[in-house]
Amino acid sequence: MKPQPLSSTNMSWSLSISTPPPKNLLTGSNGNQDPQFLTIKSSKWSIDPTSTGLQRQPKQELSRILRTEAAIKAIEQKANSKKYNNLWPKAVLEALDDAMKENQWESALKIFELLRKQHWYEPRTKTYTKLLMMLGKCRQPEEGSLLFEVLLSDGLKPTVDVYTALVGAYGKSGQLDKAFSVVDEMKAISECKPDVYTYSVLISCCIKLHRFELIRGVLAEMSYLGIECSAVTYNTIIDGYGKAKMFEEMENTLTDMIESGSSVPDLFTFNSIIGAYGRSGLIDKMEKWYTEFQLMGLRQDIKTFNILIKSYGKAGMYGKMRSVLEFMEKRFFAPSIVTHNIVIETFGKAGDIKTMEEYFSKLKHLGIKPTTVTYCSLVSAYSKAGHIKKVDSILRQVENSDVILDTPFFNCVICAYGRAGDVEKDVKVVSGNGREKMQAGQHHLCYHDSSLQCTRND
């Protein structure tokens, strides 16, 4: 079947390009996102060499970004012309893959439109599944619905994975009614019955929207259809209840998990439950469940220790914080940058500048690179303590490092100078990064009043 063209008249997927890419860059390299504790996903900052704004990026990372963006834009430009219908497959497919991984949904759909025009194009449900998953992450349910119609026009039969991705696209965007309708539609198709993964996605959407009252009904339907919960399903529910401080429901779900016989608690379960109690300051319950999971044979990882350290720090139990750090050292668990950031932030918020500086020095002595989170914690602590000259020192360190800066860092610096009443430096920071603010897209610079507290909300 000849593919139907995607145009602004029938799909509303047109996109204008303002910056021409380099001619010879048609491939991009992919970078893995580290889902570590307290990490931040941010657009990269770049400025004019004559600007006085604060900026640093590793050359290798900047090169990767430029190659990827150039590859996407080079292919995307060709999508605006009707004559490019026999392009090199590798270039088009890699550009599409890069756009999806970067969640650039407009570019991805434009490149996909170009892909469908190629003589060698063969429709595949796997491509549609990936696009639908991306659109779900980008909260674009309408585009997902249109894409599903295009799949049908390409002569493809939707698979369970396609339907599940569509469930996610609706659910993550807050359209739970449509998500449930898709599941009902699946139940009427013999070869596309919803499976445990479909229901896990649906439950995850309910939890993210705080529609906990719907979970019981979904579980009852799964039981009626003979679909057993997987460890992922149980962990999704446990983690959701924990973050909502619904501790009784959380523990009941853990009991159901253990009694099911088909799923057993794992490290994710361990960390979710002690993290839930730790975040709420229920230290006794956190310690009780830490011991319980140890008796089940589960062993802690670096994230477990980070949860303990942060929980003890938040509760002001600094002695126990140090005990965890000593235990890690004895058991040869090397503290990560996340661990150091938690400790530095904790002592900084407590106003213990001396201890904070000791751990910062230790971090550098171990050869661990500070991150923007590290520097933000230092700036915040110095600002609250009235050590504005030390804020100046931090900025000089940043200027001589290759740390990738983000908007929360600049907001923190602006807040610090605002609190100190140094309007001149405040204006310098803002004006030096105004252009980058427009480029960043995902974040916003905010000029803080001096009365506001300088913190990160990660």
Summarize this entry quickly.
Residues 1-18 have a biased composition (Polar residues). By secondary structure, the protein is mainly alpha-helical.
Structural class from helices and strands?
mainly alpha
β-sheet strand percentage: under 5%
The global form is globular
Estimated radius of gyration: 25 Å
**Strand segment tally:** 0
The number of helical elements comes to: 22
What oligomeric arrangement do these chains adopt? single chain
What are the secondary-structure elements, in order, as H or E?
HHHHHHHHHHHHHHHHHHHHHH
- Residue-averaged pLDDT: 81
How can the largest sheet be summarized?
none
Pick out the low-confidence regions. Answer: 1-66, 433-455
The portion of residues assigned to helices is 55-70%
Amino- and carboxy-terminal Cα gap = 48 Å
Family: Belongs to the PPR family. P subfamily.
Keywords: Repeat
GO molecular function, one term: mRNA binding
Organism: Salix udensis
